[in-house]
Specification:
378 residues, alpha+beta, binds flavin-adenine dinucleotide
């Protein structure tokens, strides 16, 4: 593994740093809707100058960035205190899945409005009885002439309240084995059969929603990757989910840790060897996370596909972020728990880290089975 950047990577980083210095997104707004608009504006600014999707090929409006450059992009975004673009699910999940499986017409129709945040995307995978075991999902799609009629319920659907399109996986053949009877659809959210009901989280915000689908209609041309091929197409989406974010998240973790160390320093707490020890341990974990993320990148560059490091970094990040925010509460006391304050938000939001994008238990299974070669759990 080579941790030094080559000339083109350094040039890419410097150009991006200069752009971010000229386009300071400003302070994060407090209210949820203002925050979302702020992220839309930031994405539009990125898109205007060709930075919205550096990892996309130039013919689709990207920069054809290498994996390392893509990692640099997310690291620099985190370092500049910039937000993730509003259409993050479109940019990281829907776009690459459409590029892999879409017809020329689908690529032509859907990719450009993703870049400009004109059309926001959400991911309709999880259901009340299908999360980790996604293939057991029950939402049904039945053929009706040149359309499909969809009935079912999705849950935890992030950004559905803003979304124009949904990456929807539904069962089209109930007789087939569970992984084989699925089809992947591009569903228009703006229709009568689709109801979005926000779920309020412990933080007070509503990032995600329940999605009730009652007779929604999807034209045949919005099937992605062919009827009955939904599992394979969904795996493409899931493979893309963790790839870039690891770098953004590890930088955010580092910043949060630096902030906690500064606040503990102001309170004279760094002289306490027990506190220094706990902070030291978090520093070590943050560094291991950064290096493991780069090791994962090297594996993709060498072998052409993501290794198990993606599961490892997601697991390590969620655990470390939860430890860090808990330590903040221990060190800062009631001040860290003031409702509406930064630390109380971080502490409460971190609860979901070990669930979203794959639960820690499931990630541990992956590491046990695919890295350590232990027998399969099932
Ligand atoms: C903030 C947030 C945003 C989300 N956004 C989206 C989204 O936009 N779109 C979407 O489709 N989903 C989204 N999700 C849903 C997320 O993908 C699921 O919550 C996750 O996959 C777990 O599924 P589940 O909630 O059904 O839990 P379950 O799968 O029912 O798991 C329950 C418990 O059992 C454990 N478990 C399950 N299977 C195993 C096993 N084989 N071995 C050991 N333990 C096991 C789990 O670890 C967990 O502790 C989001 C979740 C969160 C928290």
């Amino acid at each position: 593994m080579d941790l030094t950047f080559n000339e083109p990577e350094l040039a890419f980083r410097d150009e991006l740093r200069a752009w971010l210095a000229d386009h300071d997104p400003g302070r994060e707004p407090d209210s949820e809707d203002a925050n979302y608009e702020w992220r839309v504006d930031f994405q539009r600014a990125l898109a205007r100058d060709g930075w919205a999707a550096v990892h996309w090929p130039p013919e689709y409006g990207g920069r054809g960035a290498t994996l390392t450059q893509s990692a640099i992009f997310f690291e620099e975004l985190g370092r500049a205190g910039a937000p993730l673009p509003a259409n993050v699910l479109g940019l990281l999940l829907a776009g690459p899945t459409i590029m892999s499986w879409g017809t020329p017409e689908q690529k032509e129709r859907y990719l450009t409005p993703i870049l400009s945040a004109e059309e926001i995307w959400c991911q309709g995978f999880s259901e009340p009885d299908a999360g980790s075991d996604l293939a057991s999902l029950k939402t049904r799609a039945v053929k009706d002439g040149d359309h499909w009629v969809v009935t079912g319920q999705k849950v935890w659907t992030s950004a559905a309240q803003y979304a124009k399109w949904c990456m929807l996986v539904a069962r089209t053949d109930p007789e087939a084995p569970k992984h084989k009877g699925l089809t992947y659809f591009l569903m228009d959210m703006e229709q009568e059969g689709v109801t979005v009901r926000p779920l309020r989280q412990i933080t007070g915000e509503s990032e995600f929603n329940e999605l009730f689908i009652d007779g929604a209609r999807i034209p045949d041309e919005n099937v992605l990757g062919g009827e009955g091929n939904g599992w394979k197409v969904a795996l493409t989406t899931l493979m893309n989910e963790r790839a870039g974010l690891a770098f953004f998240l590890q930088v955010r973790l580092r910043q949060l840790l630096d902030r906690l160390i500064a606040e503990a320093g102001q309170r004279g707490q760094l002289e306490d060897p027990v506190i220094a020890d706990r902070l030291g341990e978090l520093h070590l974990k943050a560094e291991i996370l950064r290096l493991t993320a780069y090791r994962g990148l090297t594996a993709i560059e060498k072998y052409g596909q993501p290794g198990p490091e993606g599961s490892l970094t997601k697991w390590m990040w969620s655990e470390t972020n939860q430890q860090l925010t808990q330590l903040a509460a221990d060190l800062l006391g009631p001040a860290a728990l003031t409702a509406g304050g930064r630390w109380s938000y971080e502490l409460l939001r971190a609860r979901g880290n070990s669930i979203e994008g794959g639960t820690t238990e499931v990630l541990k299974n992956i590491v046990a089975e695919r890295v350590l070669g232990l027998p399969k759990a099932r």
